[in-house]
Design a protein that fits this description.
Layout (H helix, E strand, L loop, with lengths): L3 H23 L1 H9 L5 H5 L3 H27 L8 H34 L24 H17 L5 H17 L2 H11 L1 H5 L1
Length: 201
């Protein structure tokens, strides 16, 4: 049975991070003005590099994601797999493999792009070279995001969690990021929706 109340709260909390990244992508100049005016606090205001401001905010906002996952696993989910030990072992093994794949993709993206590239340095006006090394030579679009999705599913599988609501919601939000929020079509829509001033930033 689906816990509607938790599902709605988790949906909203997990979406905060994705909308923040979409904001950086679609409105980098507005983000710069907000940083310099102190809207994100004095520590971030004093940081001269915008990508580092985004990185700091990105780490802060992870609290929402981790809190939802930890609460779900420790409070809501039953981690006692009712199936046979052999079936549970296979499921746990598959989960560990997914976690490893996800971590490899995440690490490789950071190694290839460096933090300046990961945290929208190009959109903020920094020089970020195009790369064709792993994982960008695999044909996987947005490998870092698929890496996160793989990790989340892997954790739930390996622990034998009784509910997959959070992995499903995470998958939804990361696909939304890839296809809408951090995509040229989403940027065009967002700027049209906000108005002419936002277009000019």
């Amino acid at each position: 049975m689906i816990d509607i109340g938790f599902t709605i709260k988790a949906f909203l909390l997990l979406g905060i991070e994705r909308f923040l990244y979409g904001y950086w992508y679609s409105f980098p100049k507005h983000f710069e003005k907000s940083v310099r005016s102190g809207k994100f606090g004095s520590r971030i205001q004093a940081e001269p590099h915008l990508w580092k401001c985004a990185m700091t905010l990105g780490m802060y906002i992870k609290v929402f994601q981790f809190s939802v996952i930890v609460f779900d696993l420790l409070v809501r989910c039953d981690l006692t797999d009712p199936r046979s030990s052999q079936e549970a072992l296979v499921k746990a093994g598959a989960g560990v493999i997914l976690v490893l794949i996800g971590q490899i993709l995440n690490y490789s993206v950071f190694k290839a792009l460096k933090p300046v590239g990961v945290y929208y340095g190009y959109e903020f006006g920094y020089k970020v070279p195009m790369v064709s090394c792993f994982p960008y030579n695999t044909g996987i679009s947005d490998p870092q995001y698929w890496g996160v999705v793989s990790c989340v599913w892997g954790v739930y599988l390996s622990l034998g969690a009784s509910s997959n609501i959070v992995p499903i919601l995470e998958t939804f939000w990361y696909i939304m990021s890839m296809k809408v929020l951090e995509n040229p079509r989403g940027r065009k829509f967002a700027r049209a929706f906000i108005g002419e001033d936002a277009k000019k930033e």
